Task: inverse folding
């Protein structure tokens, strides 16, 4: 396996970034009354996943790296809840929720694998 030279080469970051872009697109349809509520929170949590992977990548100590990846894992769970809430409030369709959830699950699997690999 080749060594990476940038977080942008990590598949987990690429998939997380794709999730962020899709969250931004879907949340554009949320009511304007949610701009400082669910829209902002959902986007912030989605960005946090990719941002913490990027930040953790450059950390030199294992404990530091794992801390940032763990923060990303927490943000993943936060996004999972926001998907449930957005669907229950009828801000997104079941198809949109399913698509985003599948992406989130893939990022979660990749991040968990990456976390375990760094921990070893």
Result:
């Amino acid at each position: 396996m080749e060594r990476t030279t940038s977080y942008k080469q990590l598949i987990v970051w690429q998939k997380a970034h794709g999730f962020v872009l899709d969250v931004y697109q879907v949340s554009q349809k949320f009511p304007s009354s949610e701009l400082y509520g669910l829209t902002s929170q959902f986007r912030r949590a989605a960005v946090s996943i990719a941002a913490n992977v990027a930040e953790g990548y450059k950390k030199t100590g294992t404990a530091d790296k794992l801390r940032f990846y763990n923060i990303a894992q927490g943000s993943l769970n936060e996004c999972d809840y926001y998907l449930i809430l957005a669907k229950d409030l009828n801000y997104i369709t079941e198809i949109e929720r399913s698509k985003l959830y599948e992406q989130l699950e893939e990022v979660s699997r990749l991040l968990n694998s990456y976390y375990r690999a760094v921990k070893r």
